Amino acid sequence: MNKRAKIGQLLPYQSCVLCGAVSNHVAAWCAACDADMPHLRMPLCPICALPSPLGAICGHCINTPPHFSRTVAVFGYTFPLDKLIQALKYGERLELAHSFADQLAQHIKIRPDSMIAMPLHPARLQERGFNQSMELARRLEKKLHIPVLTNVCERVRDTPPQSTLSRKARNKNMQQAFACTKNFGTQDLSGQHIAIVDDVMTSGASLNEVARVLRAAGAREVSAWVIARTLPR
Ligand SMILES: [Zn+2]
Ligand SMILES: [Zn+2]
Asked: How far apart are CA 212 and CA 43, in angstroms?
């Protein structure tokens, strides 16, 4: 038996979430489907992760700098990744959080002091039973050995879904949607670099608002870490 076959035997086989083929690829999808995934390989603005010639800071980030310093994104939010994110979000395939977080971990070059998960409003959390961003953050914590802070920031306003709104309306919709909890006790944010973990970044309005409240509470720097980035058509 050759070495490759032996290694293959040690890896758990599973069926690919996309095509059903039996595979021992490291992710929940097989290697052939991975080649078709919308990996972001073009040069991106380092701040907002939108395509930008030569990877320069884009005009929008120069004119209106967000409260976060950088965005790390793995995929474009297009087919078939959008279907996988929805399967994670609506709880059908919670194990996808591991595959997504493992991919994101490989893109991290600048380490923050700690992470937080994008907060979900308590009403949504109760309805869904879990926060997909917390599932991602917990896996990243294990992989990267960077602590996840909880009860630092909460969603205090249950806003209409962002996807139904224009960009301007999205920014307005986010105002006062988040607050840093008064009693984060021993967790002092002063001088910390904090990464916010989220599944999808669309306009960036919610990440920007969370970054704003974290910095108002003393954070020195904020990074946005997302699985997928919505790209302009
Ligand atoms: Zn496949
Ligand atoms: Zn930008």
From this structure: 26
Provide the CATH topology of domain 40-229.
Answer: Rossmann fold (3.40.50)
Find the mean pLDDT for residues 217-221.
Answer: 94
Q: Which residues of the chain does CATH 3.40.50 include?
A: 40-229
**Which-ligand-closest: CA of 18?**
1
Q: What is the pTM of this model?
A: 0.90
66 preceded by cis ω (within 30°)?
A: no
CA distance 153 to 182: 9
Q: Which ligand is nearest to the CA of 49?
A: 2
In DSSP terms, 221 is beta-bridged to 193
Task: Give residue 192 CA to ligand 2 midpoint distance, Å.
Answer: 23
- Residue 9: which pLDDT band, with cuts at 50, 70 and 90? very low
d(CA 78, CA 39) in angstroms, rounded, equals: 10
Closest ligand relative to 208 C-alpha: 2
Beta strands in 82-232 (DSSP E): 114-117, 153-155, 178-180, 193-201, 221-229
Contact (Cβ atoms closer than 8 angstroms) between residue 100 and residue 88: yes
Distance 56 CA to ligand 2 centre (A): 8
